[in-house]
Design brief:
The chain is of the alpha/beta class and 268 residues long. It has one domain: Rossmann fold (3-Layer(aba) Sandwich), CATH 3.40.50.1820. Helix content is 35%, strand content 17%. The protein has ten helices and eight strands. The protein has an eight-stranded mixed beta sheet, with helices on both faces. Strand 5, helix 3 and strand 6 form a beta-alpha-beta unit. Helix 2 crosses helix 3, helix 4 packs antiparallel against helix 7 and helix 5 packs across helix 6. The longest helix has 15 residues. The protein is globular, with a radius of gyration of 17 Å. The two termini are 26 Å apart.
Amino acid sequence: MATFQTSDGLTLVYQIDDFTDPWRQSDTLILKHAAMGSMKRMYAWVPILARHMRVVRMDMRGHGATQIPPADGLTLDRLSQDVVELMDEVGVEKAHVAGSSAGGIIAMWTAVSRPERVKTLAAYATIPGLKMSAGHTDYQAWIDGMRNEGVAAFLTRTAATRFDVDALEPGFLDWFVGEAAKNDVEMLVRMVTLMSGTDFQERMGDIKCPSLMIVPGGDPNQNADEYDVLKTIPDCTFKVYDGLPHNITDAVPERCATDLRDFVLSHS
């Protein structure tokens, strides 16, 4: 792993995996993990992607090994700026950017706010801000659950909203909740509060790069109408993984990564 200091003084941790042919010019892909996670959540994607492109994973601010930001250091613009500054750090002017859930929101906003830096966009189980789903998803209950039960207990209790629990490999759920529980509870509360107050669906037309939107067909957190907003992106490839709950990037990582690899290579 490597680190760099962001323009507001935070130490951000990232990892580069590159198994491309050294005599070829390779594109760069930046992967953004979901909230409550870290770059480790994308581990199964790397073997599929890194043979074809330089893969850069990062622990977003306040997650994993990256520092927790001060009170004024967690905004959507700042999270997006971290992506841009990471591109500068690894020496690339324009990258493919992909993210899962909240990581997808950040990737999407980067494509909206800094279109000159994003070659393609991919987002999984992502809508343009969780405020859209606040009418049927109780984000305050998420906050109360994490604070009162602890992150591991809360995620274990609500696992069926994220996974087909019966289909999980033994040991996976314990690993998943254990990694999430390494994050600071109040930092996760700040992240949920930020994302549940965010809605930029009216900006979908501002995404000009080719975009891949993959949605879980059995998601209890977002409904089909909310995901259909993504179809207003001008150059959008829209795919549904039928029947799967929210955490498709963890439940079927090989499928997610293969679709992403094929999409990126078609636009490289």
